[in-house]
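Hi V.,

Quick status before I head out on leave. The structure for the redesign project is tokenized and pasted below; the design run finished overnight.
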């Protein structure tokens, strides 16, 4: 259980806050390259409590500037994006991507006033379909983190963005909560006379793999955690047949990158970047990728359209509200607290869906947003199954405090190569002494790409 002071320190991300200052040390992925057109319309962005405007200039470079013109405060959302800069339509002041005022037509031609004006601007870089920004203190930012999902060719990855009405820590903790998978995401058989509770404890007929088999067979996995130079390595151990254990290995990459272990041979890998928009809203950047090949047509259809009329890990194409004037105005989903995420009690009662919620991300987000914008963790009652969440909190607080007290750079900031990891699964003999050593070649990208097929089939 956290103290109120610790909970506040973890969740507040604005300028000058403990966590906000730490997150600013890292590059932040904040937009999809395909959504920014050269000399096209600017878009409203909000990051770490700051209102910003993103735009792509004539040459293709992306700018990220403070929303309000430094002259009289008019919004640059209305700016003319032309000829390598954004021009405020109020009085014509124009700014380049570095924040330099390059034109001030309402001042005398002989005036040097424009050279004294510098607008808030953050450097941006692009890689494989994602735009990143650095909001930290370094004049020369570090390299982009070597995250595998953002280093494979664009044909091998699919990205989506949605906005969630909750603090960024809630979905991070949800991603590393392996026990909820055995309940919240379970698929039931409506024609089975057994109750839902009975069904989820019995592997589905002919089932193999994690979700339909092992997540039902062992509902209370053992959690183990190790602090690392990138964050925390978290693993869950479940009992499996033939005197073996089934391990799922989840690296947590500071400050907010999560990875989801695979489920069988040659399947794409998945995860999220949970970027804080502000204290109470999160930009959910979801990715599905394959390390060695393009995504197949079936895999692309699955992430775009969901399955059996339900949402998958990604939001489907038609699930968003019409574009609005809010930051990230086209990324607010229709499934939200105001309509209880379209919870269907009849579907729950008749065992069409265990949760009654329409798919994977609404199930996760429905639970996380139901906690409120910022959950009061002083009211928690944590068990041994919450070991991953406890370790993540401790690691984040320790890194933020070390930065504040001694100026110690947070894990990975000075060595972006440490993030070159992938999630993994493994079936190991119960006599295995070290799961870390036994799975190292699976979660280290330098190792071979390996899968397990269906090791736990009955």
């Amino acid at each position: 259980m956290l103290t109120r002071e610790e909970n506040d320190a973890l969740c507040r991300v604005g300028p000058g806050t403990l966590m906000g200052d730490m997150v600013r040390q890292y590059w932040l992925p904040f937009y999809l390259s395909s959504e920014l057109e050269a000399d096209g319309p600017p878009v409203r962005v909000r990051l770490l409590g700051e209102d910003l405007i993103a735009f792509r200039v004539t040459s293709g470079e992306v700018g990220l500037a403070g929303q309000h013109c430094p002259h009289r405060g008019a919004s640059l959302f209305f700016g003319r994006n032309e000829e390598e800069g954004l021009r405020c339509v109020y009085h014509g002041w124009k700014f380049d991507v570095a924040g330099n005022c390059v034109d001030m037509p309402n001042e005398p031609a002989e005036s040097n006033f424009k050279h004294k004006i510098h607008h808030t601007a953050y450097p941006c870089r692009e890689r494989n379909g994602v735009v990143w920004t650095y909001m930290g203190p370094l004049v020369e930012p570090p390299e982009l983190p070597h995250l595998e999902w953002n280093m494979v060719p664009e044909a091998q990855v699919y990205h989506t963005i949605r906005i969630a009405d909750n603090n960024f820590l809630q979905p991070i903790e949800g991603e590393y909560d392996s026990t909820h998978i055995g309940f919240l995401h379970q698929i039931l058989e409506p024609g089975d006379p057994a109750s839902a509770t009975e069904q989820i404890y019995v592997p589905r007929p002919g089932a193999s793999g994690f979700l339909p088999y092992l997540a039902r067979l062992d509902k209370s996995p053992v959690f183990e955690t190790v602090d690392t130079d990138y964050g925390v390595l978290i693993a869950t151990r479940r009992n499996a047949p033939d005197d073996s254990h089934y391990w799922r290995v989840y690296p947590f990459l500071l400050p907010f990158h999560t990875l989801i272990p695979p489920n069988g041979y040659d399947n794409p890998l998945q995860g999220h970047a949970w970027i804080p928009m502000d204290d109470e809203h999160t930009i959910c950047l979801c990715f599905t990728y394959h390390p060695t090949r393009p995504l197949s047509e079936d895999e692309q259809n699955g992430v775009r359209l969901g399955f059996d009329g339900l949402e998958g890990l990604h939001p489907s194409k038609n699930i968003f509200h019409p574009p609005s004037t809010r930051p990230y105005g086209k990324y607010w989903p229709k499934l939200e607290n105001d309509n209880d995420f379209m919870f269907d009690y009849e579907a729950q009662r008749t065992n069409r869906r265990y949760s009654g919620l329409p798919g994977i991300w609404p199930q996760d987000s429905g639970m996380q947003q139901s906690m409120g914008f910022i959950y009061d963790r002083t009211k928690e009652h944590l068990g041994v199954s919450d070991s991953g969440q406890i370790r993540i909190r401790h690691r984040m607080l320790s890194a933020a405090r070390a930065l504040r007290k001694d100026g110690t750079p947070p894990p990975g900031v000075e060595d972006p190569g440490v993030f070159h990891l992938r999630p993994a699964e493994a079936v190991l003999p119960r006599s295995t002494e070290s799961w870390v050593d036994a799975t190292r070649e699976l979660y280290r990208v330098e190792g071979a790409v390996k899968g397990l097929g269906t090791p736990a089939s009955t």
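Above is the designed sequence. Residues 148-443 form a domain with the Naphthalene 1,2-dioxygenase Alpha Subunit; Chain A, domain 1 fold (CATH 3.90.380.10).

G. will cover questions while I'm gone.

Best,
W.
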